[in-house]
Amino acid sequence: MSFLKKLERAQKRTLLCVGLDTDISKLPASIPKTANGVLQFNKKIIEATKKYVCAYKINLAFYETLGKDGWKILNETLKAIPKNIITIADGKRGDIGNTSAMYAKSLFEDLNFDAATVNPLMGFDSVEPFLNYKNKGVFLLAVTSNKGARDFQFLKVGKKYLYKKIVETSLKWNKHKNIGFVVGATKSSELKELRKTAASVPFLIPGIGSQGGSLKNAVKLGTNSKNNLAIINVSRSIIYASNGSNFAEIAEKESKKYFDEIKKYRI
Amino acid sequence: MSFLKKLERAQKRTLLCVGLDTDISKLPASIPKTANGVLQFNKKIIEATKKYVCAYKINLAFYETLGKDGWKILNETLKAIPKNIITIADGKRGDIGNTSAMYAKSLFEDLNFDAATVNPLMGFDSVEPFLNYKNKGVFLLAVTSNKGARDFQFLKVGKKYLYKKIVETSLKWNKHKNIGFVVGATKSSELKELRKTAASVPFLIPGIGSQGGSLKNAVKLGTNSKNNLAIINVSRSIIYASNGSNFAEIAEKESKKYFDEIKKYRI
Can you list the alpha helix ranges (DSSP code H) found in A59-121? Predict the structure, then answer.
């Protein structure tokens, strides 16, 4: 099944994506501060939130930092995610062709993620090995949610900003219709503008919650004309909503809150 | 000891860096095609080439693709490298602050690399967590060696190319004097130009050998006025010089050839 098809199905339920940025130092007191503790935590969070999400985004840095156990629990975490939910590897990789091919193989074949984030700075041949997996989604960084986005993404190239050039150029690479873009919720007017430029591709929208982006804008401006194709990611304010032994219950309540709010704005 | 100091000491010997981009499918017939085979191969390559190098660059993709064993053999490979030789983690990471901090911790604390390559597209706050390790080197992508470099790095921002803006802007972040740049050997005129803009920072120069860059230009144009600070990386054409059982001996000969040629151009 194509990535777009799988996403559209999952989005009949909701646009909400929960980010499993599980930081060992932030685990609830009831969970051991070990790699296995991270896995235990992830499983409980998935169990508690799965009816309210279309996707889980997994931040690779948080697993790499666990060393050799990181890979193992990443694998186990993926196995705990129901098959009808999209899995996104958030690693922002990108390198010369033969190296990008290694990253793509590792994420799309070995770990079997549905999608990955990719940094497009090195151009077409650095992105192509990801795109060649035509049933996998490839989210290129366009406008990121952090302050530093202003440093280079907002440089003017002729009359356009760099991020716009990146979007326009890479849309020409979209022969398998599996490109998407990362557009931060903290940048509402760019979100609105880019939805016009790229009307029919999915946007992965981080920056809600701890980073301060508006959920309403993310839904209203980030979706296409069918109120679709925006994947709205919330990480810390759901998974760390409580660090008591009731953390899963509270994460469930928080995700339901986002789920309900998205529903309200989506109609 | 600062990164620059350690590099200067290592560069009394040579500018040559060998890239340990060890691809399991390219291992010599005499070596088992397993993660342990990769480690065995790396150890023999290090033993054979260590007197001819200032640094080893380790391409993280090639280890990630080995899954949970990848981390272990990465660690073991690092242990086999003599302490006076620079180790560079080539992963081109870069993300929002809290995530970059995880990557930096993982590479600089857990694995204890001397330096890492970082993708600067997300701006200052994505790079800062790496720079905060003031005794570690941080090589930002400026002009990469691949064809796709032309897609975005060569867009004109006002009268300057994007790569030049990236270099000029990020030099302002260099309070710990630990920034360097990746400048591909396949882009000689940009190498010459950037050595003027960034006279006193190290350049990591890939693209020699399989990718076709000129070694002479890399040495002549990439070094500073003291014939220093260019780290010239050769990967495939040294480590895969032979796939016979004498692969280490041939790799030694190949690295000596590069070593001698660099010596000739450096004087």
Answer: 61-64, 68-79, 97-104
